[in-house]
Amino acid sequence: MAFKEYGDYDGVGLAELVRSKQVTAAELLDEAIARTDALDPTLNAVVVRHDDYARKQIEAGLPQGPFTGVPFLLKDLDLLAGTRTTFGASLYKDFVAPHTGTLAGRFLAAGVTIFGKSASPEFGLMPTTESRLHGPTRNPWNLDHSSGGSSGGAAAAVAARILPVAHASDGGGSIRIPASACGVFGLKPTRARNPIGPDRGEGWGGFACGHVVSISVRDSAAMLDALHGPEPSSPYVAPPPERPFAEEVGREPGRLRIAFTDRSTYGDAIDPEVAAAVRDTARLLEGLGHHVEQRAPVLPADPAQVIATIVACNTGLAVQLAEQTLGRAMTERDFEVLTLASAANARKASGVDYCAAQLAAFQISRALAEFFTSIDVFLSPTLCTLPLRIGEINTMAHDLSGISPTLRRYIPGTSLFNMSGQPSMSVPLAWSASGLPIGLMFAGRFGDEATLLRLAAQLERERPWKTRRPPVYAST
């Protein structure tokens, strides 16, 4: 089948075609598979394939949900019983999931057909997707550049229209970073909005959460309706929404109080094109009737040090569990140099160091909460430079000293809202002179995805991005 209009539809739109019997779920799956076969040798976005799993879903009968029949990819960090999940690590290249994660189960209940897993860096540690096991995932707007990370495979696949919506997760920016790099929409929900079990109650000390990247705001909202809510093991829950999230799309946001900054979290100057995009967006918001002022929060601690400690300790645990299971020390045959170095740093840290990092995260969260008492939304750059070039971060280098300065320059602000648990989104509103996307990051108050979704839908109407096509684009 050649369904050339497939790339014009978002997930909600494709599901409506299935419901109205204009197309079948099997035909949509065939289209997604054909597009993957055509483009993935170039992009390397889909690193685990299980087409037969998706076909068996259809044969068994799909549940009636908001995305029934829509082809879908899980990120290669989540479990789907009977399918491979590699975590981007050589040690797990043949690992088969013994059970299905709670979030994956909710995706299935929404009606999607899961035909594979999208690329992630090893354990999702880096803001670029270039694992040793699978190789680099390339940006469909420019193949010399990274698709971002850690949900780089998902964002590249969505940008290239292999599919309209895909699973993504975010512990320090990993939904918003690749959404910005690839020119798609990415919302990180409020802490505990979506489930993370059953194997753990929280990820990265409460920083991590799962959701999607998408070509439309309404896909993100509709999927949030399908996913949100606690599970039996949830250690805490997010405030309940006032109404379904899908009903916020198209609802007028009102006159919002919006603060913005065109500098980095540390007050540093950023890439001129990115800074110009922030200022241009601020003018757009003012023209839409919002109250806009240039103002940024003052932070009581260094977020880079906080997340480095939290992530190192969690990585150290992952390595330790592998060593306990196999009864031997992990080596570079098993994990990348960066992973082993992070685990080694964790062994040097004390329990007091970890608690100090948690306290600093709380202090940052408190400062942000106070900042938001006088505003509704904060606008800042998602990335402070254009997307990294492939190879700019090398997780197999024995000298890793250049990585921290690169991260400070590239993504100084995304992790703030993982620490505070606030919802935050990257909206594709600008492109560089060289044709690379520039995402703008908006954060809202804790529990207030509604305001962000209303604002995003307003911006989507004013500056639609769905019709923009990267040079590497699927059209069978």
Task: Characterize the structure shown.
There is one protein chain. With 476 residues, this protein is of the alpha+beta class. It has a single domain, classed as Amidase signature (AS) enzymes, CATH 3.90.1300.10. The protein is 36% helix and 15% strand. Helix 2 (25-43) packs antiparallel against helix 3 and helix 5 packs parallel to helix 6 (176-182).
Keywords:
single chain; 476 residues; alpha+beta; Amidase signature (AS) enzymes; eight-stranded mixed sheet
Q: What is the tally of helical segments?
A: 14
Helix content: 25-40%
**Topology pattern, helix = H, strand = E:** HHEHEHEEEEEHEHEEHEHEHHHEHHEEH
Mean pLDDT: 97
The proportion of strand residues reads 5-15%
Report a brief summary of the structure.
This protein is of the alpha+beta class.
Secondary structure: elements and pairs:
Elements: H1 11-19, H2 25-43, E1 46-49, H3 51-60, E2 71-75, H4 102-109, E3 113-118, E4 130-131, E5 135-136, E6 138-139, E7 142-146, H5 152-159, E8 165-170, H6 176-182, E9 185-188, E10 209-214, H7 217-227, E11 257-260, H8 272-287, E12 291-294, H9 303-326, H10 337-348, H11 351-371, E13 377-381, H12 403-410, H13 416-420, E14 424-431, E15 437-444, H14 449-462
Parallel strand pairs: 2-3, 11-12, 11-13
Antiparallel strand pairs: 1-3, 4-5, 6-7, 8-10, 9-10, 9-14, 13-15, 14-15
Helix pairs in contact: 2-3, 5-6, 9-10, 9-11
